[in-house]
Amino acid sequence: MTSFVRNQWYVAAFGREVGRELFARTVCGEPILLWRTESGAVTAMSDRCVHRRFPLSQEPSRIVGDQVVCGYHGFTYGADGVCVSVPGQKRVPRTARLTSYPVVEQDSFVWVWIGERELADEKLVPRAPWLDHPGYTTVSGMEPLAARYDLLVDNLLDLSHETYLHGGYIGTPEVAETPITTEVDEAAGVVRVSRRMDDAACPPFYANSTGIEGRITRWQDIEYHAPCLYLLHSRVAPVGSRPPEPDGTDPDGFHMEVVYAITPETEHSTHDFWAVARDFAPDDQAVTDFVHDNNRTVVLQDVVALDVLEKAISAERDGYQELSINIDTGGLAARRILKRLAEEGARATAGSTSAGAEARGSA
Amino acid sequence: MTAHDPAALPGGVFRVHWVPGADRLLGVCYCGAEQEFEDPVDLWNWLLGHPEAPEPAERQRLARA
Ligand code: FES
Ligand SMILES: [Fe+2]
Ligand SMILES: [Zn+2]
To answer: Looking at this predicted complex, what is its ipTM?
Structure first.
């Protein structure tokens, strides 16, 4: 068994990546084919033809209407993954069907359920409503990470690294110096880490996007919905300005909703989806371009560091030593929750009868 | 250990404060139990084992017995 947390929703793509072309992405080690039917609905199924395992995302495989035709010998599948015709004979083998994946398209993401179909509950997909909300302007992207996903979880739950790894972009001394409050909601599988800086330097990322010139109050409120969705509610405001009203209105605050979807690709690689939604200067294209380019630079600083870290720890013996201090409180909580979810997910799969359905048939 | 106050946090929620001006962490369980730690690993061992698991002091007493 792998270390993937099964029986969970994962972001497989941005909605804009999936259209009337065959699109492939590996999630938790499973190669998945994504495409839109003529009605516009996203459908997801195994990217391996049941006949000889040809990747259906590979040319000359193609979409014809609401069917996919394998480019190798012509097995043809409907949008539900069921094979509807095979070459040279009328009878289609009863077991000729691709594993299909439950899909939810929401908040600009395409989510797929990795695990037992019958356990998929659409209500459990965590929300990031800012990403396609008319009151926000959003930039986003996806960077391939050659590192196990746990390293990105660790990275995002401890933002003290901004001071060192992202100095001159989003990091200032106050981030690493300011104590955090951490909260775990066991039942919901959510970790919250809050860092409230009362009087901090304004790093270039915020100075250039908001136009604030002096020092700022800076709030970083993290909400990690294990395993896949990470939200950073970021608020900056000039020092001395009014705090948010009790009803949530906040005329003096500049808000950025920083969202990551952390999707394991393989045991040692991850899809690093990122997005930043802001509620100020909505139509200022220069700000949009700046936020996009600067945030992507920051994401790539993490990618470079984590790629190196993956190489280093892959070369270590199992059970290597780490040392944790106060800043790691949130990351340690996330690890605990992921471990529990992985165990629960594996139990649910072991208890299901549908395991092994893809066993290879004889010739 | 402090008295249990079920109104402190919603059920199933644990909170960890960084003690102001100190390097210590204060773990608070939704059942109202609190304890300070110097190491976040020890803290989560205690907090997430709570309330089913015995207190560290109780565990040590049992180990000695
Ligand atoms: S491998 Fe797809 S039809 Fe043969
Ligand atoms: Fe970072
Ligand atoms: Zn308790």
So the answer is: 0.84
